[in-house]
Amino acid sequence: MPVAVITGGSKGLGRALALGLAARGWDLVLGARTAAVLAGTAREAEAYGTRVVAVPGDVTDAGHRTELIAAAGRLGGLDLLVSNASVLGAEPLVRLDAHPLAGLRAALEVNVVAALGLVQEALPPLRASAAGTVIVISSEAAAEAYETWGGYGAAKAALDQLAAVLAVEEPGLRVWAVDPGDMDTDLHTAAVPAEGEHRPAPESVVPAFLRLLDERPVSGRYGARSLLVSA
User: Fold this and answer.
1) How far apart are CA 158 and CA 154, in angstroms?
2) Residues 6+ apart with CB under 8 A from 76
3) Which of 22, 84, 155, 228 would be a feasible disulfide site paired with 111, CB 3.0-4.6 Å?
């Protein structure tokens, strides 16, 4: 069975992707900071009859990143890395003139530095896979200028660029930066708690990710909603 590592895998999009892959028979390594919530998601995925390893920890910790990839190795290798763990840098979001610099550093550390560190750990087994794939979770804020989204958007834009360069440097892999669009997640609620609008569930975009895995288009940046419309 193919093996995937998903960071931020306990809830939101990470959980939705984990269950979507488990339903297809993927073995999973799931990482997240909250052990109890992560264990619950692992049990949900295991109900599909797949093997699931829950690895609680912080993706900024090099030891945790090493443990994630080692767990994948014990399952037989690594075919897919999903870099989903993310922080906003300020909750709720604020204008740049008030953005805490410590928060921006935290966003860059989690969303960019840790993501690259994990890719570096994962490259040997990904190169050995016949279908080695990296997916980084992007955001519309990485490409568009929205008031108060500057810090988070800058971090996601940096992540997009890392993915684009990785695709050039690793032509044997598929590397996709995927913008899932607005979703009903804790992250979005923390970003704009008073917004009060209805947003789609994370599960609604899982078919777009599965389509990418099925069709394996060239490396690049994709919008999940666009993939669903064109399906």
Assistant:
1) 6
2) 1, 3, 27
3) 155
SS3 for 109-168 is HHHHHHHHHHHHHHHHHHHHCCCCEEEEECCHHHCCCCCCCHHHHHHHHHHHHHHHHHHH
3-state secondary structure of 103: helix
Q: What does the pLDDT read at residue 94?
A: 94
- Please state whether beta strands 3-7 and 27-32 pair in parallel, antiparallel, or not at all (unpaired): parallel
Q: Mind listing the pLDDT tens digit for each residue in 141-194? A: 999 999 999 999 999 999 999 999 999 999 999 999 999 988 778 787 887 776
Contact 33, 12 (CB under 8 A): no
Distance CA 6, CA 11 (A): 11
Amino acid 195: pLDDT: 60
> What domains can be seen in the chain, in order of their start residue?
3-230 (3.40.50.720)
- With a pLDDT cut of 70, the percent of the chain lying above it is 98
Residue count of the chain? 231
Mark out the alpha helices in the chain (DSSP H runs): 12-22, 35-46, 62-75, 101-108, 114-128, 150-169, 186-191, 206-215, 224-230
Predicted TM-score of the model (pTM): 0.95
Tell me, rounded to whole angstroms, the distance of Cα 191 from its chain centroid: 18
pLDDT band at residue 231 under the 50/70/90 scheme: low
| 209 backbone dihedrals φ, ψ, rounded to 5° | -70, -40
Write out the catalytic residue numbers: 152
- The neighbouring-strand residues paired with 82 are 6, 135
